[in-house]
Each structure stands twice: as C-alpha cells, then as structure tokens.
Amino acid sequence: MSWDVKESGLAYFYRSRRVNGKPVKVYVGRGQKGVEAEYQDQERRLKQQRDQQYWETKLSQAEQASRHTAESASLVTLLHRALLINAGYYLHKGHEWRRRKAV
Fold first, then answer.
1. Is the dihedral of CA 86, 90, 94, 96 positive or negative?
2. Do 87 and 74 form a contact (C-beta atoms < 8 A)?
3. Which uninterrupted H or E stretch holds 58?
4. What is the pLDDT at residue 5?
C-alpha cells in the first residue's frame, strides 16, 4: 500500500496484490477515497497483529499446560510404581505386575 506522487504533484493511493505470483499495483483512488483506503488497510494490519498475538499467547498457554500435564503424569506413574512395589508386587518382563510369592 502506498501513495504515489505523480509529476503533476497529485497523490494516488495504490494497493499491492499478487496476480499469478507477480506483484501488481492496483489503483484505489486519490483524495478522501485514498485516505479512507489507507485507514482501512492500517486497521486490517492492526487486527491481523492482534489476532496473531492472541493465538501465539493461546499456543504458549497450551504448550505450558501440556508440559505440566506430562510432569504430573510422570509423577503419578512413579507414585503408582512405588505403591505397587511397597505392596509386594514386581514388574514381570517389564510390562506385567505380579505379586511376589512368600518364601
């Protein structure tokens, strides 16, 4: 988005678009119409920035919650193993809990 000043001294507002992968300038207007278009473009950019910040914050919060959940799960697993071992069980072949026989 830019204002182009021609040799006559008049300013014209253009927007940049991509057509078939190539940048193309599209005429919007001059005077009040150009000012309004520029204002709309600024508002759109600000909204995009706010949306991006919002979603980055949400993603950060979700990642933090995921880390806390993983830490809690590992602690619960450790506690579970300790309780079973204390109750006389052992891990047979690495995947099945069995009660030790009294000797």
1. negative
2. no
3. helix 32-86
4. 86
Q: Are 2 and 34 in contact (CB under 8 A)?
A: no
In sequence order, what DSSP letters do the residues of 74-93 get, joined into one string? HHHHHHHHHHHHHTTEEEET
Structure tokens at 66: 């995921």
For residue 102, give both structure tokens: 């009294």
pLDDT attached to residue 47? 98
Q: What does the pLDDT look like over 43-59, one tens digit per residue?
A: 999 999 999 999 999 99
Distance between CA atoms of 55 and 97, rounded to whole angstroms? 44
Instruction: Name residue, tokens 């119409």.
Output: 33
Tokens 């910040």 sit on residue? 53
The C-alpha angle with vertex 30 and arms to 28 and 35, in degrees rounded to 5, equals 85
